[in-house]
Amino acid sequence: MHGRAVRNLAKLDSTQARITRIFDAAAGGKNNFLVDKDTVRHFDQVTPAITTAARAVLQFLSRVVRHLAAVEGVDQFMIVGSGVPSGLSAGHRLHDIARRASANPDLRVVYVENDPMVVTMAQATIEPFTDLVRVVEGDVREIDEMLRDQVVQTFIDWDRPLAVLLLSTYSLDDDEYAHYVVKRLRHIAPLGSFLGLLHTTFDSIPAELLPAIRDLLAMTLPGLAIRSRDEVAALLDGLDLVEPGLVWVPQWRPAERDLACRDQPGSSGNYGAVARIP
Hints:
- By secondary structure, the chain is of the alpha/beta class.
- The protein has helices spanning 2-10, 19-26, 34-46, 50-70, 94-101, 116-125, 143-148, 150-155, 175-188, 210-220, 229-235, and strands at residues 76-80, 108-113, 133-137, 163-166, 194-200, 240-241, 247-248, 270-276.
- It has one domain: Rossmann fold.
- The longest helix is centred in the first third of the chain and has 21 residues, at 50-70.
């Protein structure tokens, strides 16, 4: 594992903000750099909601994982692009939540990440303590290569239902390729599997703030994919959505303790959905 860490860190660029690290910084995590914290501050100056929105997303992901493990009985997860957020405390990360909720003590989770820092830190802080979680380097923008990864191919039992959480839709700025990614995941997932989707949107941003936010994104995160609700719904066309369907993330099976963006769900800036794969 030391060799993997060295290779990953050699590719690390601490001068350029990355969306996974920005998300981590906004959620109060430690797997980020000063440039990521500065980006959060810049966004907060335009619209002071990013920190609360990041917490709402974390709460949504926790509820999705808990539901799939406890209610739907899924005991295999492939989580693509979550940033393995360190804003969730030890014992409360997504794999911990899934394993506590599941009736199967051997539930398995594979995280797929493309940020070298996230990969290295997660491998160092998670893998040594369990044989049931793996962290692999991969990029949804190279979906076929990602799915050919040896760990992805061998750690998951491809003859049993699987939950794929596609959380890195922000990197899929080409519509045709975004649809291909969803189609590819639907094709490879075994019968009885689920697809979870998270997607950033500008639908709730006041028109007078849009120019400033677009300019800030162009400078800090060029190529970030932003879609309307109709465009996100098109990605899920043909799938059987689990209630309550495609909604703002605070509205997806809300829990009483999850307060982030509860009163203004649109301020989360993200839609979420879970679908059964036919």
